[in-house]
């Protein structure tokens, strides 16, 4: 978990590889569908381009289907999900139904100026439609309204592992591994 530009996608792959599980990124799945022009992609694009969240029903169904795939049988890392309270409830139900357990909720903390700078830099390299200054501002607002409160929800369950996301990618990665070492098996 973390605001747009915190480094979620950047770090997720390395953490998932380390634990030998797939990294399931809702943003990546949406972008792949947008690229292929599927009905899901056409619907998601409208929201993503405006900096809004894709509706919960659509996102929840997509994650439920992805988690049911064989490579997720032994566990998985979720990148960018859950982002709303309704998604938390749905994830709880999915976890119960599949016999999995939520081990930790990793939260990357970063300064607002740093995330804006990172996303504007990515805009120059990748040209993502949601990396313009106006859309970034909206994404940060939506994050504060919808997703930040979830940190308290998971904090009350004792699951939050907070990691400083400032600094070089490798430095942040090392902090993540150190913090996860302290999570009980
Ligand atoms: P995401 O794909 O999750 O986009 P993001 O929040 O920008 O994070 P991302 O993982 O891409 O970026 P990162 O911080 O790694 O979501 C995109 C959209 O999809 C959402 O706005 C929403 O519309 C939709 N969506 C996704 N999940 C949803 C859900 N559950 N419910 C509803 N809608 C959903 O990296 C950003 C940049 O920073 C990169 O260029 C990276 O290279 C750079 N960077 C990373 N770490 C750095 C470091 N330490 N130093 C310098 N640069 C760094």
UniProtKB/TrEMBL annotation:
List of residues binding ATP: 5-10, 122, 167
SUPFAM superfamilies xrefs: P-loop containing nucleoside triphosphate hydrolases (SSF52540)
Keyword Zinc annotated: no
Compartment annotation: Cytoplasm
Biochemical pathway: Purine metabolism; AMP biosynthesis via salvage pathway; AMP from ADP: step 1/1
Region forming the signal peptide: none
PROSITE patterns: ADENYLATE_KINASE (PS00113)
Keyword field contains ATP-binding: yes
Coiled-coil stretches noted in the UniProt entry, renumbered to this chain: none
Region span, NMP: 25-54
BP GO annotations: AMP salvage
GO terms of molecular function: AMP kinase activity; ATP binding
Keyword entries, A-Z: ATP-binding, Cytoplasm, Kinase, Nucleotide biosynthesis, Nucleotide-binding, Transferase
Enzyme kind, highest EC tier: transferase
Catalytic function, reaction form: AMP + ATP = 2 ADP
Entry note about domains: Consists of three domains, a large central CORE domain and two small peripheral domains, NMPbind and LID, which undergo movements during catalysis. The LID domain closes over the site of phosphoryl transfer upon ATP binding. Assembling and dissambling the active center during each catalytic cycle provides an effective means to prevent ATP hydrolysis.
Family membership: Belongs to the adenylate kinase family.
Role this protein plays: Catalyzes the reversible transfer of the terminal phosphate group between ATP and AMP. Plays an important role in cellular energy homeostasis and in adenine nucleotide metabolism.
Binding partners and assembly: Monomer.
HAMAP family with a match to the protein in the record: Adenylate_kinase_Adk
Name the UniProt record assigns to this protein: Adenylate kinase
Gene that encodes the chain: adk
């Amino acid at each position: 978990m973390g605001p747009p530009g915190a480094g979620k996608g950047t770090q997720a792959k390395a953490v998932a590889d380390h634990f030998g599980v797939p990294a399931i990124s809702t943003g990546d799945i949406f972008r792949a569908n947008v690229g292929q022009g599927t009905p899901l992609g056409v619907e998601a694009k409208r929201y993503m381009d405006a900096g809004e969240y894709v509706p919960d029903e659509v996102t929840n169904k997509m994650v439920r289907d992805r988690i049911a795939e064989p490579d997720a049988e032994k566990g998985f890392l979720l990148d960018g999900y859950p982002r709303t309270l309704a998604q938390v409830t749905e994830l709880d139900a999915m976890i119960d139904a599949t016999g999995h357990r939520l081990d930790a909720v990793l939260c990357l903390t970063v300064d607002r100026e740093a995330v804006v700078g990172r996303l504007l830099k990515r805009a120059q390299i990748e040209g993502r439609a949601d990396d313009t200054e106006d859309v970034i501002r909206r994404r940060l607002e939506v994050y504060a309204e919808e997703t930040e409160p979830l940190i308290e929800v998971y904090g009350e369950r004792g699951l939050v592992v907070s990691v400083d996301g400032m600094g070089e990618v490798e430095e942040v990665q090392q902090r993540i591994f150190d913090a996860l070492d302290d999570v009980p098996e």
